[in-house]
Amino acid sequence: MPFPASGGGAYMRYTPKIIRFARHGCTNRPFFHIVVMEKRFNQHSQVIEQLGTYDPLGNQYNERLVALNFERVRHWLGRGADTSYPVAELLGLCGFFPIHPRCYMSAWRNRKAAETEAAAQEAKSEGQEKT
Amino acid sequence: MLRSVNAIYPNLQYLGLQVWNDLKLSPVCIQCVRWKRKPRWLPVAKSKLFRIPERPKIDESEDIELKRLHDRYRTEMRSVRNYFRQEFKETSANSLAALQGSKDEEEEHLRCMKENEEWNKQVALLREQRLTKIQEARKEIILAKIIAFEEREKEQLEKAEQMVREEKERAKFYITADNIDKAIEDALISPVDHNYAIDLEGHIFQGHKTKPTDVPPDKLEKVQVQGLVS
Fold first, then answer.
1. With 80 as the cut, is the pLDDT of residue B150 above it?
2. For this UniProt entry, which segments traverse the membrane (chain B) (predicted)?
């Protein structure tokens, strides 16, 4: 029997829980539920509770939409649930957590790449002007 | 691409694979596996034997910066987590609100118990009344039965006494050893003739006087038939 995607899994005491993504899209179309579940369980086993959704592909305005139930997130964090890295990054961008170092890293790397690309472009255009 | 098992099997045999165990081929639907990792027990390929993988190059200043950021992040996260934990503790079972709730519940329970006891008392009173009623009714029934029994006994005794009395009266005419001679003599003196005849109209002709002309018509007896409806 298929599990309900939005939770209903058994809550086991003394086992580690985690707030993580559960992929619910299809081929070439990722879509994630943000769920609380047993840390050691498979991604597609029954979740304890769904806390939100995350759509990584931008919509027509190039917005990546996130829905989160912060009240429940607080509750589960208070209960000692862990967060996976992607969820921690997302919560950091939400302003719920401090910003994850990985975000800073990717930002400066992107900046650096853009700078080098711009420099290369400039050099190329200068070369064209000289000839 | 679908092929039969026999078509695939000889191609794979020289790879040192036990086809049935390793690939778990299902004879119903077979899909060609073009590339599969080598099994664990096979040695490193000859071409890869002396290959040394390149170490990833890490920018030193970036590394230091990342370490700093991570340290800071972990410290901040710890405090955030502690904050949430504290918050949860305050709102969960041992918090003041929860305690107050449990206290209220206890009071409610006590009140309910009191009410229940009152109800029980009322019901007990009603039950007692009902039971005494039933008891009295039963007593009456039993008494009536006892009286009826006694009456029956009395009747039976009377009947028996009546029988005894009758028998005693009858005993006067018993033939005993004292008066047997007299009884025999009486019997001899008065012989009884049980022979008789009946005609169609039911007249009885006693003894040997079976001719109708022997008996005057006014002395004729008639048979008494029981249950005859005339």
1. yes
2. none
